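Regression test case RT-17, inverse folding.

Input:
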């Protein structure tokens, strides 16, 4: 893959613009070209045969790999400090492929219980049907995690900042428990991105992104990525499928053939190939545009979020605000430890007047968009209990910290005064503080 040998010396913002790419050798095009091709002409039958055994340089078929996707993958891997990445059709596909590369029927996984609603359902229902048991644990209760580890356990999964209760993962402790037990730590960093949190520095082994969110940044496309830290000993005895010689690999194992890239090669060559959750090169190109400005966007997202959160925290019509970067938030210390640049731009709050006021408030907004997404350049708002987390039972909702009055805000890049003004006009209509008993 086109790459400069000294890329590793570049800083984050330079890598976000140049990582994984040299200008197109045929045309000298400066921007990354979109290679809209399903397949690639082989040099010879020997060349074709070597590629089918995962040996030799070149592309076969865009379900497995594509040159535009390769730039995105290489760039993400460099931004995280990992050894390789696999870009796929969605964040959900990334989680599915990563976790099923680790666990098969009869195996078990441990996941912290403050999760994206789609992930919760994937683990509690779909994986259950596949025979993979997922134990949901309180991410702050290390004894509970330790108690659930047994000889069938294959990984610990967490989100950097849990959705939507914003629980910050204590990554050093989680990676410590995982590694003491010979397990990889898999972390969904969608809410943080490498611009705010370098997970591998805290011991994570595999990083997941829904690139749909801040990495794309403009709410245009669905995608996901798996990044391999290259820092886990897959030959430790617990992952025989990584060390087994396979006929499709010309009687080599993934560890023999790909060494520190064994995980990401296996994910691509097996489940990537078999399940076919392929990322379109066009979407990949959009994510590359997003990465170019990730760092400046995220700084502004955080700045705006801090201002809007502070405004709401002192507002008489607001019951509570949960944003770990507010100085008196109970998680402030953890936020300073893991995300000193700010705990993202997504936070929750409760409006006085409970469920009914919350609904009227959302229905009365004019600028903020009521929709199911986060990490768009535009400010987004939603009521999780009735939407994103509606598949959870009332008990599961409470366990995940989702109360009926909870509203989730993903603060965008508009002028803060305009975001605040829209919230203000809507509170005037919805809050019992202003609305006298006219109904
Ligand atoms: C959106 C999201 C996902 C799922 O990603 P898709 O791209 O929608 O499939 C997973 N985890 C988190 C934290 C998310 O916000």
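Golden output:
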């Amino acid at each position: 893959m086109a790459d400069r040998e000294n890329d590793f010396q570049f800083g984050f913002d330079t890598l976000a613009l140049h990582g994984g790419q040299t200008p197109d050798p045929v045309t000298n095009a400066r921007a990354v070209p979109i290679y809209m091709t399903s397949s690639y002409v082989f040099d010879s039958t020997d060349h074709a045969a070597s590629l089918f055994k995962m040996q030799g340089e070149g592309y076969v078929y865009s379900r497995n790999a594509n040159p535009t996707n390769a730039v995105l993958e290489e760039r993400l891997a460099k931004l995280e400090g990992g050894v390789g990445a696999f870009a796929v059709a969605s964040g959900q596909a990334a989680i599915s492929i990563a976790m099923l590369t680790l666990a098969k029927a009869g195996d078990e996984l441990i996941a912290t219980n403050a999760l994206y609603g789609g992930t919760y359902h994937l683990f509690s229902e779909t994986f259950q049907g596949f025979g993979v048991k997922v134990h949901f644990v309180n991410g702050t209760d290390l004894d509970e995690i330790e108690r659930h580890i047994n000889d069938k356990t294959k990984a610990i999964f967490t989100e950097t900042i849990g959705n939507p209760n914003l629980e910050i993962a204590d990554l050093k402790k989680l990676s410590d428990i995982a590694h003491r037990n010979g397990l990889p730590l898999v972390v969904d960093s969608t809410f943080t991105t490498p611009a705010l949190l370098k997970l591998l520095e805290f011991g994570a082994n595999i990083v997941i992104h829904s690139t749909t969110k801040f990495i794309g940044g403009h709410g245009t496309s669905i995608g996901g990525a798996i990044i391999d830290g290259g820092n886990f000993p897959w030959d430790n005895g617990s992952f025989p499928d990584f060390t087994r010689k396979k006929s499709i690999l010309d009687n080599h194992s993934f560890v023999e053939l790909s060494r520190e890239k064994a995980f990401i090669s296996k994910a691509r060559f097996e489940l990537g190939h078999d399940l076919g959750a392929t990322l379109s090169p066009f979407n990949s190109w959009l994510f590359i545009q997003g990465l170019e400005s990730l760092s400046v966007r995220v700084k502004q997202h955080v700045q705006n979020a801090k201002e809007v959160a502070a405004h709401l925290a002192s507002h008489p019509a607001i019951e509570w605000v949960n944003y770990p970067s507010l100085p008196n938030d109970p998680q402030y210390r953890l936020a300073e430890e893991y995300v000193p640049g700010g705990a993202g731009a997504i936070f929750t709050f409760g409006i006085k007047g409970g469920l009914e006021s919350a609904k009227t408030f959302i229905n009365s907004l004019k600028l903020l968009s009521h929709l199911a997404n986060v990490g768009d350049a535009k400010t987004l708002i939603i009521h999780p209990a009735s939407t994103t987390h509606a598949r959870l039972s009332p008990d599961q909702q409470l366990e995940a910290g989702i109360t009926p009055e909870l509203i989730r805000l993903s603060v965008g890049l508009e002028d803060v005064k305009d975001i605040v003004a829209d919230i203000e006009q809507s509170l005037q209509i919805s809050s019992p503080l202003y609305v006298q008993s006219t109904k």
